[in-house]
Design goal:
This protein has about 450 residues and is α+β, with helices and mostly antiparallel strands. Helix content is about 20%, strand content about 30%. It is built from 10 helices and 19 strands. It has helices at about 30, 35-45, 80, 100-105, 110-125, 205-215, 250-260, 265-270, 270-280, 360-380; strands at about 1-5, 20, 55-65, 90-95, 130-140, 140-150, 155-165, 175-185, 190-195, 220, 225-230, 235-240, 320-325, 330-335, 345-360, 385-390, 415-420, 430, 440-445. β3 (about 55-65), α3 and β4 (about 90-95) form a beta-alpha-beta unit. The protein starts with a strand and ends in a 9-residue tail after the last strand.
Length: about 450
């Protein structure tokens, strides 16, 4: 019997009804396994999220301060943390240089953590009750997230994850780097990053490197798998970024003179962060609001005077707040100058963030449509073969997948020819089940994809 399945080479043997497809190697992996199907369904729902969600407005308050290792003492932080009559839904408060002691590098505990945490708690907006969602600290960098009590239930608490990356000494130590917290609020993923990048005016490339290290190495291990910072709908990145005014383009005394007369835009033309962002070297896709406040660094302690040390550092906007993502608008962006315990001034920014909230009737419709589509695609991916037999070999009662040999006598050889053709849309593997009294003495067999020609 001659077996021909769109010409090629290997030999095989077959009996009539014993031609069967085997395995599922030709099926797309995403559909051929249960886990793959679930992942594909989740991806479909993610891409269709806009069609089954409504937008709800939330106020997000971001604050950052390099406190130069100082204790808060009895100072009230309300001028820094309360700027509106309406309480924000979310507070993200970042500190740098929380503790500059040697012990802070060696031990995980620091008395400064509790001191500043308690001071923050006492200074949150009195118009709402807040819960601490997460606190994460690496040496002197600390990030605290508070949320209003009435939205706490809207956060998927298994999604709350804090992580940190050190980029300081030896590229690993925690005197520089970033701490971050992510979570899912309703159907929107949010990430807050508090950073402290490399110091010194000439080290802008090292700051760029710190940014790259944080973005590549800081990974959240969530229930749905690892996530980078970039894998979020809304990102708020803030802290002591340490970018300075380019000293070769603008001398310190000239910068101070322009600042004294409120000519900030002229000074900001030489801002290293904006230069590096324009060149596409850092913070790709991020936005910063208009700066209309005095530089936040460097001041003599307990004064509003610029650095009077021998170094005579030029003023700079070291402390910044940036954001990335859709449905975010900045309401204000300020520095709070009355605090004098540090050589930095604190910075705060209030945002309106529109969060995606599930519309359950719409979701059911999208979910059902996705299942129907998956079923349809899965059916398309089932292998299909057709056995073609010359018409003269057919009996009146037979179908196209039966081969009849008629009356066979002892020691009499009968030959039949047929073609196994792939009529599906995927690779169609098959096998011949050998029967002991049937031999294949000549065969040409190969598998062709649909629409291929020999």
């Amino acid at each position: 019997m001659d077996l021909v399945e769109e010409p090629s080479s290997p030999e095989s043997e077959e009996d009539e009804e014993n031609l069967v497809p085997v395995g599922s190697e030709g099926l797309p992996t995403a559909i051929s396994s249960l886990a793959g199907r679930e992942l594909l369904l989740r991806n479909i729902l993610d891409t269709k999220k806009d069609s089954y969600t409504d937008l709800q407005s939330y106020k997000v308050y971001v604050a950052t301060w390099n406190v130069n290792g100082q204790s808060p003492g009895s100072i009230c932080l309300r001028d820094w943390l309360i700027r509106t009559t309406e309480p924000p839904h979310i507070y993200a408060i970042g500190f740098q240089e929380l503790d500059l002691s040697k012990e802070a590098f060696l031990f995980s505990d620091s008395p400064r953590e509790k001191e500043w945490l308690n001071s923050v708690k006492r200074s949150l907006h009195p118009g709402a009750k807040y819960r601490k969602l997460e606190l994460i600290r690496l040496v002197g960098m600390m990030l605290i997230i508070f949320v209003k009590d009435d939205i706490h239930k809207s956060i998927h608490h298994h999604s709350v994850v804090g992580e940190y990356v050190g980029t300081g000494l030896l590229g690993k130590m925690g005197n520089k780097g970033g701490v971050a917290v992510r979570f899912d609020l309703e159907e929107t993923s949010i990430c807050f990053v508090n950073c402290h990048l490399a110091a010194h005016v000439e080290e802008f490339q090292r700051r760029n490197q710190d940014y790259s290290q944080i973005t590549s190495r800081l990974i959240f291990n969530t229930r749905n798998g690892p996530r980078h910072i970039r894998n979020h709908d809304q990102i708020f990145w803030f802290g002591d970024m340490n970018y300075r005014i380019n000293p070769t383009a603008l001398e310190a005394e000239k910068a101070k003179s322009l600042i004294k007369h409120g000519r900030y835009k002229e000074v900001l033309k030489f801002d290293q962060l904006r230069d590096q962002m324009r060149e596409g070297k850092v913070f790709h896709g991020f936005t910063e609001g208009e700066i209309s406040f005095r530089p936040t660094y460097k001041y003599d302690i307990n004064s509003d005077n610029w650095d009077s040390s021998e170094k005579n550092r030029s003023p700079a906007w070291c402390d910044r707040v940036l954001w990335k993502g859709e449905n975010i608008s900045q309401i204000d962006y300020v520095s709070v100058g009355q605090y004098k315990l540090s050589d930095h001034k604190p910075v705060a920014s209030l945002f309106e963030a529109k969060i995606k909230v599930m519309n359950h009737p719409k979701y059911r419709k999208v979910y059902e449509d996705a299942l129907k589509w998956l079923d349809k695609e899965e059916n398309k991916c089932l292998p299909q073969v057709l056995v073609e037999i010359p018409g003269s070999d057919l009996l009146p009662h037979s179908n196209r997948n039966e081969i009849h040999f008629g009356r066979v006598k002892f020691l009499e050889t009968i030959r039949k020819s047929f073609v196994v053709r792939n009529i599906g849309q995927v690779f169609g593997p098959w096998a011949l089940n050998q029967v002991f009294w049937i031999f294949v003495d000549s065969a040409v067999a190969s598998i062709y994809m649909p629409k291929d020609t020999p």
